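Quick one - inputs below.
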Amino acid sequence: MLKDVTLGQYFPGNTVVHRLDPRTKIILVIVYIVALFNAYNWYSYALVAAVTLGCIAASRIKPKTIMKGLKPLIIVIVLTALLNLFYTTGTPIVPGWIITWEGLKKAVLLVARIIMLIAGTFLLTYTTSPIALTDGLEILLNPLKKIKVPVHEMSMMMSMALRFIPTLTEETDKIMSAQKARGADFETGSLLQRARALLPILVPLFVSSFRRADELAVAMESRCYHGGEGRTRMKTLKYANRDLWALLLGAAFLAGVIALKKFGL
Amino acid sequence: MSEIKAEGLRHVYSVGTPFEKVAIDNINVLIPHGQLVGIIGHTGSGKSTFIQHLNGLLKPTAGKVCCDGQDINASKQITHDVRFKVGLVFQYPEYQLFEETVYKDIAFGPKNMKLSEGEIDQHVREAARFVGVDEELFERSPLELSGGQKRRIAIAGVIAMRPGVLILDEPTAGLDPEGCAQILQNICDYRRETGSTVILVSHSMDDVARIADRLIVFSGGGIFMDGTPQEVFSRPDELTDIGLSVPEPTAIAMALHRRGVELGSAVYTTEQLVSAVKALGKGASGC
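Output:
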């Protein structure tokens, strides 16, 4: 059951979207979000939607997978839709009704915006390995070092956390199986009983996490890790031609959306 | 009585994702009551997946597992009850200790069986005796004991449910030779005194060769060989072909065979090797 966690899961592949430099992809996602929030009518939304669908198609990620990522947010989406539907003033659809044409339009567009926002950012995490992602972020945030932001430490912490998510998931699965083999029951009983049933999982999990953290620290120190200063990389990120093209296309896309807004189409 | 039967067992991990993988396929096995079965195979051969089906922790994608003629996945209640009949000790079980005291940790299983206080006490003391854990340790925290002691307490935690079938996944992994020998002795004693079925997963050929009645060799998600140690180790070349080692005495016999010295039938324990070599000596002097 723990294997169903898809947030931030990486699906290996070899498409153009996968091969783009992580920095390019992070910048493009920011461009995409700016464009999305500048889109305000049907035409600009249609353009954003076309680009979103095009990128998903190019990445060969199954639409079903993207939909699965949307599931946890369904309440937020439904709530947004309902609030906008009922609390927007304007011309009623049927005289006397509370639902207005303006409300309907706003609800549809906002829901589309949320869905595209999530789909776009998921595309980044689905097609970029977590390590590449943190590497890209670290380089992009490098200028912040000038104002004493510990960029390297933060990205090291992030990549370690990401690295250990699958390990901890596996460990949790194992511990759960072992306690189930001794007849532990995690599914029935009152809320309090179920909370107490978690104890046999949490205690071993914490014990092993601390042990692991200790071992990791020793392993890193014994290989002379002493922070980011003067540290070089085994795999340096390199921009390729396709990154230039992708960035140009991104800029054109943003310009298009803003133009549509300017001319009020 | 606990007889275990697997029919056409198949398990596929992560169905419908790019990580889909067939772990085991078409496994047919009958393990009668009281047998000591050794399961050997490479990492990824499907042996761990297989044993997790025997107490219902994993549900088969196809096929079924029966305990005493009853499908263990027939209902949730049956699956829950079968956990007490088929005790499974995972690899590195000491990492699953969680209670404040050794006594409480061993009592976790019996408590889940909803036994009375008196019965729990009886079960715990008996289990501790089987694995050679002193009652003095009962009030200590399990986390501050040595590796070997932790391992034995963790095994006691499963034995305390008095399962008719005891499954152990690599019970001796990571222990020193003395600790290994002790655990194996405990397992043999337990089986002799209770008459339970014992299934032992191991990659230490010497261990399983010495104590098992029957060996099941897994390879590539299927059963590669199934027979007595005598039968299995009489085909040592096939075992080395699938990347498994053979017991030391068998390896010596193979080396002798390559140099033209025949020891006769399969040799897999030190005693057999010694007597075979002695017999050879007698035969030679007789000439």
